[in-house]
């Protein structure tokens, strides 16, 4: 660590309390989180609204006045009502899109923070500081109109008569936006902030900052200074960049930065350049102490920021690792945080080989070399939305804040293998190529770092920390909806289906309408009704698989078949008049484990994350349990096999299965689903006892960890294996008797399938015998001969701990694994 930053004494923790954003395939904050969580690729061909590839694209990067990349990240169409903001419709043509959508995002961010137009707060103490580059979209067409003298001269030199020339000049002029009274303020970058203050009546500091691709982070830096010095109580800050026209593509093409294949692949061995994106990302900041006193919802806490310049370098746009490292060191010194406690780095990560290599070099110089512990994920949202230039730092900061808030490490796309030249093997970093639950560590809160660098050597790094260790709400992104219908008769259900079909036939219906209708249906749903229809509508894949398309497909399927009692479709279930019956939960045992099991539940539901955290805190073994359950991405089959084998270890597999079982149980309980009876397969009997209320969660964690450790010790001494044999149980028993092998029938899973257990050599022999008899025999992915005499040494030490564990009678029937009999109510009898 370097000496503390001069700003350190004045640094105060700052809370992010509101977010408003518009990014490619993301019209709002929920849409952006949906894109991040599911790893959606928003890079697409340039739309007709921007520029024509037929006019400007050529694969030859040297061709004058042409570009060699025609893909990028483009925002979706956004509805804008000028009357909502008191803007005369006639002035819209002369107002840059950045000003209009900046206003939309600012209002959304304030609303997200709990403030609306009518809210009572000191508006003179609210500042707006934004990152906006100097050139705005309207500058190009308005400036182009002034080329008419050259047009006339060229036409005259070509021998065109004056009348025809004047007609041509007028035709060219008419293809551009005309100059009018509002054009001057409408094209200015500073008015992006000014219009927000003007329309939302905010009286604090009002300005924009240009630090090229680090503009938004520079603005956030200035916004923090407003709060550090007490000049403002609240700041709206971030970045706005909607300039993704042919001019900007030409700028990046001439510097050979763009990807010729049209995709940004940060840190990948296949990286070949950046693609451009556009977007708006604004945040509402407030001192942490004030935000807590006001009861604000806090996404994340800004602990410190570091800034630097590259100084003298080879060229004005060539990055320097030394300059970036200065900003990193200043940030962690100001925050008072050891970089070793950071688990996520949202890098600048443009996808250029040189830029990415310089960035990793700078990060490694600050974080130190690796020791085999891949503790810190590195990623870049540019793989999904492109390089949003002035908004890039804001896009990364919002991603990191949402990751901390939802306790999820989002994926970075298009990295099939890391660039070996980056030296990641000798670093503490891994590429976050798929989403992972962000499991807490006992030594520090969840923390993230965010970098942004700009042409001219502008370097910024910001340090974030979670506000609390627990997830407080589901990380719901709106990509999956449940439509619930109920009624007194089948005709009632059919009527509701017809209503939904009619709604979907309307062209203007969007996913927002579907979400509202789904919510209303759940409010109306009555589980006591004799007829019920549930539909799961999954639009997480985007594109043609949006909510509207998926719901329409499900309705067509249902209408074609017609609801019948207990009809089941791929994404729907129909239940007729209720039939008597009870619900049983069966909990799995060892052998059911697999890498990333329960990942989606843990990423979404607080109850599942809390269960995983609880088991990880109580785990006593080699390394972290979460790194075995949800390991970093494997780049080859050999690494995948190592991860599977690590999870197969008995001392790891059993608590890992327990964590997922407890998480599923808690999630179901949250939905009001509870069992009438429970049982468990082998180890699964422990979660079953907890589900029945016989042992508490602490006992479940303690016993799961102990059982796994004791059995792993016995396995090391006696080894052994297990195999599932698909045959009638009496035939399996006869095979064991006649073979003379020292094997036991460990599990009687069904009349037609059993599991045999014993020494590995004997298991190999039974496999041969089964093949000879044409009987299916499958080796189980376990590390020992469970339920066999080889485990005998586990009984006494485990029994001693059981004797000290409180058991409650419970109100749910528990069926014993070994006998199939009901557990007695008395603990001594059990």
- The stretches of 5 or more residues where confidence is low (pLDDT under 50) are 1-9
Task: Give the strand order of the largest sheet, numbering strands 1, 2, ... along the chain.
Answer: 5-4-6-7-1-8-15-14-9-10-12
User: Count of DSSP helices?
Assistant: 28
From the spread of the alpha carbons, the general shape counts as globular
The amount of beta strand, in percent, is 15-25%
Strand and helix layout:
Layout: E1 14-22, H1 29-38, E2 43-45, H2 53-56, E3 71-73, H3 97-112, E4 126-131, H4 139-144, H5 148-157, H6 162-174, H7 183-187, H8 190-200, E5 206-209, H9 215-228, E6 234-241, H10 246-254, E7 279-287, H11 288-293, E8 300-309, H12 321-335, E9 344-346, H13 353-367, E10 376-379, H14 382-385, H15 392-406, E11 408-409, E12 429-431, E13 436-437, E14 447-454, E15 458-465, E16 480-487, H16 490-504, H17 511-524, E17 531-538, H18 547-561, E18 572-575, E19 584-587, H19 599-604, H20 606-618, H21 625-629, H22 637-648, H23 650-670, E20 677-680, H24 685-691, H25 697-718, E21 721-726, H26 729-739, E22 743-750, E23 753-758, H27 760-773, E24 776-779, H28 795-803, E25 813-815
Parallel strand pairs: 4-5, 4-6, 9-10, 9-14, 10-12, 19-20, 20-25
Antiparallel strand pairs: 1-7, 1-8, 2-3, 6-7, 8-15, 11-13, 14-15, 16-17, 17-18, 21-23, 21-24, 22-23
